[in-house]
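I have been asked to look over a protein record a colleague put together. Alongside the sequence sits a line of tokens, each denoting a local backbone shape. Please read both lines and tell me whether the tokens look consistent with the sequence. Take the sequence as given and treat only the tokens as open to question. I have pasted the whole thing underneath without changing anything:
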Amino acid sequence: MQFNVLKQTVACLTLVLFAGACAHAEAVVVVSARSAVGSLSSNQVAQIFLGKSVAFPNGEAAVALDVSEAGLKSEFYRKVTGKDASQLKSYWAQLIFTGQARPPRSVSDSAEARRIIANNPSMIGYISRDAVDSSVKVVLVP
């Protein structure tokens, strides 16, 4: 009897930890709290992150910032552009080779991205939802 209780407890804890890890990876698109941009569509964000646009809809410059966190980056690109990691790599290889565009600068994690974006109203990036604070504002939840 005690073994079954222990087994159920371990199963519940595992589920809670797994659910927490999944929630942690939820990407949101942010800009500086000082930016005039209020919200963006998935298509507008995709245009910026795929190098097809260098401006926000209001005409202000837009500089994309990638995050190297594998789960976060793949979730963002899959949801916003429909591209997986290999498609994205191929896409950028072609653009770089032809000199048409360069991929976004990349930083290591959500905290670093948030710090950089908060200090530059031209920056746009995606971070983990749990990394959002008052220094940035969410413009898209993909």
